[in-house]
Amino acid sequence: MQSKKTNIPFSLTSESLVSDLSEEQLISLLVEGWRKSKREVIASIAEDCAVIQAEKKELYYLFKMDATVENVHFDPSSPPEWIGRKALARALSDIASMGGEPLYALVGLGVNRTEKVERIKQLYKGLTDLARAIGMDLIGGETTKSNQLFIVVTVWGKTDGYKPILRSGAEDGDSLFVTGVLGGSYDSGHHLLFIPRIQEGQWLAKGQWAKAMMDLSDGLATDLPRMAKASNIGFEIDYEAIPVRKNYGLHNALTDGEDYELLFSVAKEKEIDLIKNWPFEVPIKKIGTFSKNGKMEFQDGYRGFDHFQKSRGDY
Ligand SMILES: Nc1ncnc2c1ncn2[C@@H]1O[C@H](COP(=O)(O)OP(=O)(O)OP(=O)(O)O)[C@@H](O)[C@H]1O
Ligand SMILES: Cc1ncc(C[n+]2csc(CCOP(=O)(O)O)c2C)c(N)n1
Ligand SMILES: [Mg+2]
């Protein structure tokens, strides 16, 4: 795998804390200097999923792990079925973001000894109901004692007969689209009950509509610059075009996170056909353009979610 530049703005000392870094800086630091040893690893760290090319032509395997932690990703009072559902759906959103088809899941569970068995049973029901609905198989996992309830889901998916869509394919002049509406995910409960855009992602990849694609988990303000940097191209946003959830505002749409919608680039000349042929219920909206004259960052004050920066309910 390719190591990313660390971009650490100061020298670390033995006293430095994780909270001195952003999530991205910590990951960069941990994998600095790591080089992939296998040719079949097509994409890895910094993409939504790792991509492994199988020996058969145009067969790619996708892998993604996501953690769902009490008081970080859900409140103790959240319905347990919804917690389990969310834990799987988070990883499915990353598979969707490459146009993949989910196949198998491994589930890690951390539970306190004082936890009610019924709560964990309900949590598992939410998770397995979604897996069944999607037609994927639960093939194993791990269970451990933990002070804080957590679920770690690893999903294995594939693209068979077509290439997965990376974050790095956007080019000058491409149109930038988003599915659904953005903002207010936590307060509205969307963060528990969102529908991962699996069919939409596959359609966009199979039909060669999307050139670059990712899912929005940390907020457009953080995630779009990631796509721009991966593609090495700037962007220009039409702020008024951003689809905002009812009762929320532009700031929510840019910074709240957990939208779990698809962000993708399309060649300008395909834009009209895309809109005409879009076969799904969820709407798509053009929100800007990739441009070599544009910036790769949003203006100051728009910043998405970061696990190590101070936010709601920090401890
Ligand atoms: N501890 C780690 N070691 C190695 N790679 C990591 C580690 N944590 C995250 N990564 C990789 O870093 C990238 C960013 O991780 P992250 O989980 O934020 O993915 P994302 O797709 O940006 O966000 P989300 O999972 O919320 O959609 C991914 O490619 C992920 O596989
Ligand atoms: C109790 C509670 N507090 C805050 C939030 C909001 N939240 C948590 S993680 C995240 C970004 C994506 O996470 P990751 O980067 O891990 O994929 C956001 C916006 C929540 N859902 N529950
Ligand atoms: Mg992602």
TrEMBL record:
What is this enzyme's catalytic activity, as reactions? thiamine phosphate + ATP = thiamine diphosphate + ADP
| Ligand binding (ATP) | Y124, R167, S217
Keyword check for ATP-binding: yes
What Pfam families does the record point to?
A: AIRS, AIRS_C
- Residues binding Mg(2+) 2: D66, D94
Instruction: Tell me which InterPro entries the record gives.
Output: PurM-like_C_dom, PurM-like_C_sf, PurM-like_N, PurM-like_N_sf, ThiL-like
Provide the residue positions that the database annotates as binding substrate.
H73, E258, F305
Q: Which Gene3D superfamilies match?
A: PurM-like C-terminal domain, PurM-like, N-terminal domain
| Record-level GO BP terms | thiamine biosynthetic process; thiamine diphosphate biosynthetic process
* Family of the protein in this entry: Belongs to the thiamine-monophosphate kinase family.
Q: What is this protein called?
A: Thiamine-monophosphate kinase
Q: What organism is listed for this UniProt entry?
A: Methylacidiphilum kamchatkense Kam1
